[in-house]
């Protein structure tokens, strides 16, 4: 079980020395491009899962298994001939990577039709259930010959990686919702493996899962219950998972006190591991010349006081309601006209999905109306910067007076933690109760319900008028919480629990 103490020690060294570590995730640590002369170049992968799991490279040389997402990845997998691709970058640990390569159509069915359109929307409460989804023959085809095949390919690739590492008992750390069926398939091939899966996104309650057909629900639960440990961001997600499995798997027994499931003679531990930041690395980047340059550039975008949001431009982040709350705030508190500015840094996300593209269009349209309604020749209340620019985002996080995180649903929301760590102005955090970060940070933030535009407008006013000593007291408490529970603790807690599973298994031999 996760501890309450900070740690700067290495993750469980004895465990890592005894067993090869295989990390399996949809997105790998690098992506390849094939050049005209037949050689390959690569760039480091992006995304929270890669960033979090890459931190393990400081302590051990993990073997990665990832989807071949690009044509370059697929061609590199062919040239590797079943051997791991070894990636060496100056100043960084070398990587061993196996690609779980499927045809592009199969990957599209798994990733776009099931993972993004079905699972992501379900688990972030984004469906308008009067109209969607329709589980039609196309969805069933995507499940059976897309998602299931991708998971089977991952299992076969993990088995191959374990064989090359000469181990029948590797540690397999599966990541997220793309691989819900993989653990059961790995268990058949490597019955003695230590398998753990971490779900980075929310896990809804049983009522929400009933919108999926019984067979799909059952296959998901059985797939995940083949793990030794299933990890989530919060206690609520853990309890929801236990209830979901008990309802959908005959014979499954859930114990909410001991946080576990029992089925067919096995015990599956269910644990919260709230993900966090590599505090040292984030601070180092925030002190870089590039970030300092953006701090200077952003001065032109600030007001006397500045409200900030940094998000992907997608529906679960609830950007539109944030702008609606600001609109209402300016109506209710006209004394702030000309004095406050809302700076929004948005990263386009999954624009191949029509709903995401429409959402970004809606954001632009509402922002334009808001600026026309409230703005003057010398003051635009909202400034919007679109693009994936990490250094600019870190610069902005040092400068805000109020950080608005009003997401509809978030596994965690690391922006809230990055802001708490880096802000230099006693910035106030307004935080949605449905963000996973609320479980850790809510006591020192202003809490809001994500759909309550009126209360969010009042929270903006409360934050902007909060006495200075209270602002800095709250900010210090937020910073200390993030510093204590950093990425090392996140990794260590998981590996300590895997080590406990190993000890228990030997005790029963």
CATH architecture of the largest domain: 3-Layer(aba) Sandwich
Q: What count of helical segments does DSSP give?
A: 19
Reported by name, the CATH topology of the largest domain is Rossmann fold
What kind of sheet is the major sheet? 10 strands, mixed
Strand content: 15-25%
Q: Specify the CATH homologous superfamily of the largest domain.
A: Glycogen Phosphorylase B
In terms of quaternary structure, the protein is single chain
Could you estimate the helical fraction of the residues in percent?
40-55%
Structural class: alpha/beta
Number of separate strands: 18
Can you offer a commentary on this structure?
The chain has 509 residues and is of the alpha/beta class. It contains 19 helices and 18 strands. The strands form three sheets. A ten-stranded mixed beta sheet has the order 5-6-4-1-7-8-9-12-11-10, with helices on both faces. The chain has a six-stranded parallel beta sheet with strand order 15-14-13-16-17-18, sandwiched between helices. The chain has a two-stranded antiparallel sheet with strand order 2-3. Helix 16 links the parallel strand 17 and strand 18. Helix 4 (104-123) packs across helix 5 (137-164), helix 5 (137-164) runs parallel beside helix 6 (182-189) and helix 6 crosses helix 8 (214-225). The radius of gyration is 23 Å and the shape is globular. The chain starts with 12 loop residues before the first helix and ends with a helix.
